[in-house]
Design a protein that fits this description.
- Helix content is 2%, strand content 55%.
- It is an all-beta fold and 237 residues long.
- The longest helix is centred in the middle third of the chain and has 4 residues.
- Strand 2 and strand 3 form a beta hairpin.
- Strands 1, 13, 14, 15, 16, 17, 18, 19, 20 and 21 form a ten-stranded mixed sheet that branches. A seven-stranded antiparallel sheet has the order 2-3-4-11-6-9-12, with no helix packed on it.
Length: 237
């Protein structure tokens, strides 16, 4: 079964300093038909104005992944981590028994554009943890590059959740089309989110902000003939 969720169907919040699109119910946006997909609970596409950010706030029992698209995101947490996340880097924070953190855009005159992703952990009460890795554009070009997984395979960040996240940059040569395929094990769900550009997934055309939800599918084919960027999630049901 294939379902397409268009960009304009998402929830939206404009806080002035923060503009956020919510793929699933979050904060003031509630839609009982969109409470998550498998163990994927949140994808917020956030844009943080220069010199602003999220002050210190708590999380618990959630795997939180940040994927920066443009600008940079400064992170500080109660575990003692002080880091800056830039495009090409993937951050995983295990909230577990409880973490307090803040996120700011300190870059003058530049908006930070990033994805905030939450996954349900394999169990509650985990020890809090942090990991951050860089994946070059070359590694992601015209392939499905594993960037996060339950076992840390292929140098990906390690998730305490039954999920695999792939990142891809499509850069087809003039007049050519790139074809990518992902096999799904029985009982798995998949979620494809288009960050920018246009791709075709399972015969459905998707553009920036669009998503495709799949279940009971053996294989997903992604193709594109122009520059694009997307994430593909292989998820527990």
């Amino acid at each position: 079964m294939i379902t397409v969720r268009k960009s304009h169907e998402r929830g939206f919040a404009d806080h002035g300093w923060l503009k956020s699109f919510h793929s699933f119910s979050f904060a003031g946006y509630y839609d009982p038909n969109h409470m998550g997909w498998g163990n994927l609970r949140v994808i917020n596409e956030d844009r943080i104005a220069a010199g602003t950010g999220f002050g210190a706030h708590p999380h618990r029992d959630m795997e939180i992944v940040s994927y920066v698209i443009e600008g940079e995101l400064s992170h500080k947490d109660s575990m003692g981590n002080v880091q800056t996340i830039q495009p090409g880097e993937v951050q995983r924070m295990t909230a577990g028994t409880g973490v307090v953190h803040s996120e700011y855009n300190h870059a003058p005159g530049q908006t930070t554009h990033f994805l905030q992703i939450w996954l349900l952990p394999s169990r509650a009460g985990l020890e809090p943890g942090y990991e951050q890795k860089r994946f070059s554009d070359v590694e992601k070009t015209n392939v499905l590059r594993l960037v996060a997984s339950v076992d840390g395979a292929e140098g990906s960040v390690r998730l305490n959740a039954d999920a695999r996240i792939y990142a891809s940059l499509l850069r087809p040569a003039d007049g050519q089309t790139v074809y990518l395929e992902q096999t799904l094990a029985p009982g798995r769900k998949a979620y494809v989110f288009v960050i920018q550009g246009e791709v075709e997934v399972a015969g459905k055309k998707l553009t920036s902000g669009d998503a495709l939800l799949a279940e009971n599918e053996c294989t997903l084919r992604v193709q594109g003939s122009a520059a694009a960027e997307f994430l593909l999630f292989d998820l527990a049901a």
